[in-house]
Specification:
There is one protein chain. By secondary structure, the protein is α/β, with parallel strands linked by helices. It has ten helices and ten strands. Strands 1-10-9-2-8-7 form a six-stranded parallel beta sheet, sandwiched between helices.
Length: 350
């Protein structure tokens, strides 16, 4: 974008540039103190201000994390130090993750604990009835593709090879995220795996999914044709469609509308704007608070901007494990949120 501005300036000139940045400060290794604001910043409305003003969801460690470490910090807040030595490393052969998925006990505990909290959010959404909205979303951010595949198989199910050479579909350990149905794979998966290896595979989407989602795929092709006139939409690959599934999570009537869980590696750090993310699990190292902020930021976007009786926004929450973001309060949830109000989506039509 900078070279683009320079090109415009060289031809017709630019009088003023207003830069709206999520990170208006020097990063580590820049030669300046990390976190120091750029000297040309005229207004800084930081994330903590936005959280306190109710403009975004409030990140928190849910009350289910009642296993405290020495010093009173919740165990699942700093999860990585407990599991990193027991996870498959990057670059290992695939046989390191073959067979039934075996997760370290603390990771398995964190998944089930946060999932129990998700179930409550899902039940609240489900009890509200069919109002055209999409289900809450649980995301898992992993450190490499071996770990992401391990977590994906554990929560969504995997294919087991029997002694006679036949295969059996084993349901996922977390019922609402299981892609198994009646002994086979469901046509519309509720859990998706999005990492570099999955995007590079030629069989990322099953024929059953393509048939079940034919209307949404055709809509994607129409929009793609409008964005890129003259493009050959028939040359779109499964990987293109999978990216569209990821990019439309939480959007009614689109390819990702029924997705409840996303397992990813370095695909959701920035620019992904699903408003329905309510739960985040970090299965990786977090070297800087900026990275913590980026990952937790996937759950910051509010779902509703309707005002309550006092003319204020009702609080919305994002429950987080495994991301040691310094702002997240460790006290957990103390009360159930109020029932969700109907949302009117205002958008342009073709």
């Amino acid at each position: 974008w900078l070279s683009g501005l320079e090109a415009v300036a060289s031809k017709i000139g630019i009088r003023t540039v207003y830069d709206l940045s999520a990170t208006p400060f020097f990063l580590k290794g820049s030669g300046y103190s990390e976190g120091t604001l750029f000297p040309w910043v005229v207004s800084d409305f930081g994330l903590v201000d936005a959280i306190e003003a109710g403009l975004v969801k409030i990140p928190r460690v849910p009350v289910e994390d009642d296993t405290l470490q020495e010093g009173g910090a919740p165990t699942y807040r700093n999860l990585w130090g407990l599991i990193r030595d027991d996870l498959p490393k990057k670059g290992r052969k695939t046989d390191a993750i073959e067979g039934p998925p075996q997760l370290p006990a603390p990771l398995q505990g964190a998944l089930h604990s946060l999932y129990a909290n998700y179930q409550k959010a899902f039940d609240r959404w489900d009890s509200a009835g069919a109002d055209g909205s999409t289900p809450p979303v649980f995301i898992v951010v992993c450190n490499n593709t071996n770990v992401s595949k391990l977590v994906y198989d554990y929560v969504s199910g995997y294919e087991k090879t029997n002694r006679d050479g036949s295969t059996t579909i084993v349901p996922g350990a977390l019922g609402l995220f299981s892609n198994e149905h009646a002994g086979g794979w469901t046509h519309r998966p509720v859990t998706i795996l999005v990492d570099s290896e999955q995007l590079d595979r030629g069989d990322a989407l099953s024929p059953e999914f393509k048939r079940a989602a034919s209307a949404e795929i055709e809509q994607f092709k129409r929009e793609y044709r409008e964005r890129f006139p003259g493009a050959d939409v028939e040359s779109l690959t499964d990987e293109d469609v999978l990216r569209e599934v990821m990019n439309t999570v939480g959007k009614p009537g689109r390819l990702g509308s029924n997705v409840r869980c996303v397992v990813s590696v370095s695909m959701l750090t920035e620019g992904w704007d699903a408003t329905t993310v309510t739960h985040i699990l970090g299965v990786r190292a977090f070297g800087t608070q900026l990275l913590c902020e980026q990952v937790v930021g996937r759950g910051h976007r509010r779902r509703s901007f309707a005002l309550d009786d006092d003319g204020r926004f009702s609080p919305e929450y994002a429950d987080v494990y495994g991301v040691p973001f310094s702002f997240i309060p460790a006290s957990g949830a103390t009360q159930e949120p109020p029932p969700r109000q109907p949302i009117t989506h205002v958008r342009s039509l073709p």
